[in-house]
Amino acid sequence: MVANVAAYQFKNRRIVILCQLVGSVLFAVNMFMLDALMGGLLNVVGIVRAIVYINKDRLKIPVKLVNGIFMALYLASYALIFAVFKKEPTAFNLLIEILPLIGMGAMTVGLSMKDSRAIRICGFINSPCWLIYNCFVFSLGGIFCETFGIISVISAYIRLDMKNGKENNEDENGIS
């Protein structure tokens, strides 16, 4: 939880992604322990996503291709929940299970951008989607994480983006 909340406070994109990686590892375990399979699967994909985006310059894979692959993995996870893991496809379940997919999609777009401001903007979509999902799967850690995450993204946006402007965003010194 601390890693995910702190991630929004950094200007350095690499540090933001490393924080996201730590958070994804721990929340994957949390979600699987709660039998919240969609959350668990998406966090496993989130681990891979963080590793890819940390190394994206070395990998030299087109960003649109990488984003497309991750979006396909999110959609496959959604289908698996109903087809393989036999979650009943009621209107309610279809809606609740798609929320973290929307959040992960938004965060994937943010992480693929060159600056940390984009990550914070996508956090305005990611955290509320995950908060609602966490309420329904009763992940107390997730509820606290996303509640503090929303506060963190708002404060970081005000502190780093509105106050300083976008041109100061890619300071390599880390947190300001």
Short description:
With about 180 residues, this protein is an all-alpha fold. The chain is about 80% helix and about 0% strand. The protein has helices at about 1-5, 15-35, 35-55, 55-60, 65-85, 90-110, 115-135, 140-160.
Describe this structure in words.
Helix 6 (91-112) runs antiparallel to helix 7. The chain has helices at residues 2-7, 13-33, 37-54, 56-59, 63-83, 91-112, 116-137, 140-162. It has eight helices and no strands. The two termini are 21 Å apart. The model is unreliable at 166-176 (pLDDT under 50). It has one domain (2-167). With 176 residues, it is mainly α.
Shape descriptor:
globular
Strand content: under 5%
User: Which regions have little confidence, pLDDT < 50, spanning 5+ residues?
Assistant: 166-176
How many distinct domains? 1
Order of helices and strands: HHHHHHHH
Helical stretch count? 8
Task: Tell me the major beta sheet.
Answer: none
Q: Helical percent range?
A: over 70%
Q: Class by helix and strand content?
A: mainly alpha
Average of per-residue pLDDT values: 87
* Straight-line distance between termini: 21 Å
